[in-house]
Amino acid sequence: MLFTVLTGLITSSLLVPFGKFIRTKGSIILPFIPVLLFLFYVLHIPSVAVGTNFTQNIPWVPSLGANLDFRLDGLSLLFALLITGIGSAIFIYARSYLKGHPYFDRFFAYLLLFMSAMLGLVLSNNILILFVFWELTSISSFFLIGFNNDNSDSRKSALTALSITGLGGFFLLAGLIILGNISGTFIISELFSKRELILAHPLAPLATILLFVGAFTKSAQFPFHFWLPGAMKAPTPVSAYLHSATMVKAGIYLLARFTPILGGTDLWSYTLIIVGGFTMLYAAIHSLFRTDLKAILAYSTISALGILTFLLGLGSTEAIIAASVFIVVHALYKATLFMTTGIIDHEAHTRDISVLAGLRQVMLPVFIAGLLAALSSAGLPLTFGFIGKDLIYDAGLNQKDNLTTLWTSLAVLTNVCLVAAGFMAGIKPFVGQLPDTFSKIKLPSLALWLPPLTLAILGIFFGLFPHIAGEYLSQQTTNSILGYNTTVNLKIWHGFNTVLLLSVLTLVLGSIIYIFNKPSALKLARIERFNYLSPEFLTKKIGSAITQFSCWYTALIHDGYLRSYHFKIIIFAELLLGYKLWISGPINLDFNALTPLSWYEVGIIIMLIGALYIIVSTKSRLTSVVASSVIGYCISLLFVVYSAPDLALTQFTIDTLTTVLFVLVLYKLPAFLKLASNRILIRDAIVALGFGTILSLITLKILYEPNTIETSNFYGNNAYLLAKGKNVVNIILVDFRGIDTLFETVVLAVAALGVYSLIRLRMKASEKE
Description:
By secondary structure, the chain is an all-alpha fold.
């Protein structure tokens, strides 16, 4: 499993040196990567279908509990098949869609990175590794959404998506760490057996809420939904992939994965029902007023995600079966509709349904794909969407509470709107009379229309043979979400019953709305008058307030003067250290317990004081630099006196180099200027004396604190035994605290690259602003 995750990551990095080859002859290789990965997981279907789970454990950072643990069960297999299966269609489609694009190789590098991140997320059996891949999906989707980086709207949409999902990631990390600390393990499969322990802990509700925030931001639940319509600025292959089977489904996967651990409580159930129920109806209604095909699909996607959240909240066996089926239903028809929309945009150069019509005459295969997908989204009998919609209604009717009518009514109203939205996106552009404007449009290449047509036909295939999907996909997915075994028996026909009546009613009402609803810019403008109440508007207001505060704070604190920065830092340190010294109680000095001063210690101190006096009184920079070096050498002598020759040598070397560098730059500096008044000098002297006094008092207080040498003994005893080195300081830096040193090195390398970039930067005078 690790190999499948790394395949996309490795290939993505190889596209950097071999970009030119990929842009020309080598692009044919790209679709084979998801295809081969899809075949790999297809081969696991028979084993997983009979209840076999596969695990893999590779130690990574054992001391932190962060190991590369992977697990393939029903739920992760379903998502792995969607990621690689839908991904195969998207890769074939995108190769033709972006043919000739100057950043063709860059696009597929991002796409491969995203595919690997999603695979790692759904296969992870370690909550820390799950979070790593969770954040990687946010970062890679940021690059994909903002792929057209010369467009300000694309950049803005990418930043919005990253901000919302990244914020959710912080909350998610906190929740996952709390769960790990409560249970004593970061292994997800081990958390299942510790459900009672977790739920009995007082921090369990907090962990649940934090997990909700992470899932809701990623799966675009209200009020975090607004990033998803903005993400439609991405190229259509990105929209088709991210918003049908991958990115937005990550939040649903997270909720499904933790249902056996945290599900069944009132907090879990009612939160998901309320948030999911409101989201699905709110977004479904909004989709009816959109005129842009991608906007219609965006809001209908939000609604579908709300339905899945709603079903997971209901939590009954019927609801979980419905969710496991609807995940596949939605992925098939939504990816198809996005790709047909991309073809229309690619050929007609518009996505406005108020002007699109009659395209079936020039794009018959595309029309067939869109029609089949629209019928599946509407739940027409003999489509897989019909099975999914029946299961949703069955879940609502069989809910064991007093709100059965309310839950079912919400589902019906939502699906009525989604029927109309599906017809608007999949049928409306193709019917009617072909305008003269589009008379020269031709059928695109096979690579563009075959992938959506294939997915649309799959929706019909599973509708005609639902037992295949039920037996090989939904059965074990349902068992994984529920945490116990149940039976999934999908059928085309369940007889004349209430569910069938509701399905027919939904189809009829949705068709009526489609016929009589005429989206227009005027209607959309009327709706947008209420945008001041929207979460997006409120979020922008908060962002604007933060920006204003940041500007005020920056102007106040960061005035550009190094002396000012030093002054503020020292004042803050004095206040903090002084407060700590105050609350820690009085200092009980016993001078008799101190070692008597020797004549050479007194001599060194006298030299230090003399050098300090010269520094603050001289008007010569060179004299000041030399006096500073005297202070450094005196400190080196003190290290020698106190038997620390390694520190003395380090201090000596640093002071020597610093003095040389100072002398070299003196020739480039202007003449010595006195820029500070006597009042400022007196102020600085008081602050400096105060800082020195506080540090001296702290040092005296430490002398009388209990001295524990356990840490010193540990490093001294184990430096050679564990790290095979005799220099304890070096061993600590390189081995025991190697991660710290690694990241410090990375920071220095990044800073060096930044400095080098600025040195090499050549800008016009007009660009310097």
